[in-house]
Here is the input.
Amino acid sequence: MTAEADAAGAGRFTLDTRLSGALGGRTAQAVERAFGYRTVGELLAHYPRRYALRGELTALASLPLDENVTIVAEVLEVRVREMRQRRGSILEAKISDGTGILTLTFFNQKWREQDLRPGRRGIFAGKVGDYRGARQLAHPDYELFDDAAPPAAGDAAAKRWAEAPIPIYPATGTLASWQLAKSIALLLDGLDEIDDPVPSEVRDSRSLLTQRRALEAIHRPDAEADWKAARRTLRFTEAFVLQTALLMRRAELRTHSTTARHPSAGGLLERFDDALPFSLTDDQLAVGREIADDMGEPVPMNRLVQGEVGSGKTIVALRAMLAVADSGGQSALLAPTEVLAAQHLRSIARMLGPDLATALMPTLITGQLPAAERRKALLRAAAGQSRIVVGTHALLGETVGFADLGLVVVDEQHRFGVEQREALRLKGRNPPHVLVLTATPIPRTVAMTVFGDLDVSTIRELPAGRAGIESFVVPLAERPGWRGRVWERLAEEVELGRQGFVVCPAIEPRLAEDAAPPEGEGDADDAGPGASVASVLAELTGHPRFAGKRVAPLHGRMSAEEKDRVMRAFAAGELDVLVATTVIEVGVDVPNASAMVVVDADRFGVSQLHQLRGRVGRGAVPGLCLLVTAAEPESLARQRVEAVAGTLDGFELARVDLELRREGDVLGATQSGGRSSLKLLRVARDGEVIADARERAAQVLADDPRLERHVSLAAEVRRRVDREASEFLSKG
Here is the structure.
């Protein structure tokens, strides 16, 4: 720490004090660059990711090989050398406890030379290895003592300190764990008394610590029991504050007024229903009634409709659009890709039929429309001629206006940042009704945490007349020869007059598509050469069984016109096989498509695989899904693939997905429009905590809706909204 930081840390401050005032400008800038934190409260919520249990001090002379140890030692010397066989450097530091010498080894981390200086003492923890007969620790965790003289060896205080848990913080290459620990200690020492956001009766009934005590115990525990009690307290506090904020947002939304939308007798909706060649499922009818009831009120609807792949969410949304059109209003459908937007427009026009399509004039607005077409589309939307406008992010532009925007439908909402959804909502004269669609089933705890301010409807039933899908894992790790059989099987489907998809994780070797990588597995580009659209396309066109067959690529680097042309040709039966990336993940509806081959399936997440599989088996032709993977049998990646092959139940897969994902991956950019704002709370694990916190938050708000008697809770809600979730909570 700098003298500047020491001087700054001498004062008293609150959770809202700027770090520049508490730690000094230089340290505050380093923290903000590394983590984005600007206030004392934000840095104090940077909790340790784990704790090293020091145990008894271990003599270097008798370190056991291949065991995790923690030792107190002094740095003797440090040197950096370049590696001979490959690019990069090795930093080696020799440390000693006075009786023996041990080497610490770090690869490509020259920066550690700045703090591992000769004479520095600290605690070093890691797994003991052997290199050319000498004991070493490779990439150990360590915490260095202050530059002030440490307690003497054998001192009781030194022994207590050595046996206390060591907090290990999420760190960066420029801000190490021990530096964070020192900054946090300065904050705790200078922190004024803080009021607890959890009411005392709630805290006492659950045997929770006060917030001040919990912060102290999680950062500076004397024993394992301390940080465990602190985590339990802070986890509940996080859930309680979040649920309070969501419930307040839900109540606030209902204070706005808008235009109630009712279908008219003999109007567009009634004509549409009368012309339907099939019966709606019970679930579709029930959800339709919920939407109609919501839109019939003079307050904005905010409803999420979740449903299985192919369950008919689009027709439910279309019926809501027709009700709005009956009332003289317009609807905007926001889709995540141009392929999906164009597919939606075609699907809507087909379902409406010529007469209704002429009356409603559904219009497409995307970023790559030719200038003349775009001008016409913008004019139809602004004049109110087009009662249904379908588009991508282009709908959010300043040049796009509406005469009377009554309903916003957001398809696959997790693809959009919250600011984008808000930009569209503000285009209405009055707040429009909002309908969010997702084909990724959401477990109750996720729905409570991500969509706690929305009403949730569920469509489980699939329409009658679907032939279903059979799914199989093709395990190349054990059966490498089966790859050839995959292409034979695909060719057999095509020769029956059917069509197929082949999905690859990349466009070209080591150039990943913009789809999310599988949870917890890193980016697809880092996983080795793997399959790509280019390589598989070459493989298929050179395969004798595909001679004369019509195979085409589809991916995100093609122009909108190219993508639309390919999809139209495939839908018309003019192409036999599409070799694509995940641009076909949602919304593509070709009933004649029977085969789905996912190459390197282990590089996709559970929900992605389920979505991809849903592109086949959508009509009377039975679907076949082959999940090709070279992942080892016991790996997490293989478990994902086998889980998808094992069931068609998206709700069961959502549960499995939560269990397989690593903690912290459930709420990421794909859900809230930014990185996860959760600290200790995990929806995959803490369902009971979330439900309990929501119930208690509802009780508090029922008695005190504006939190006038719960000032500290109101402050923490505001702090959270301002700091982490303002977009999500105020614009969702």
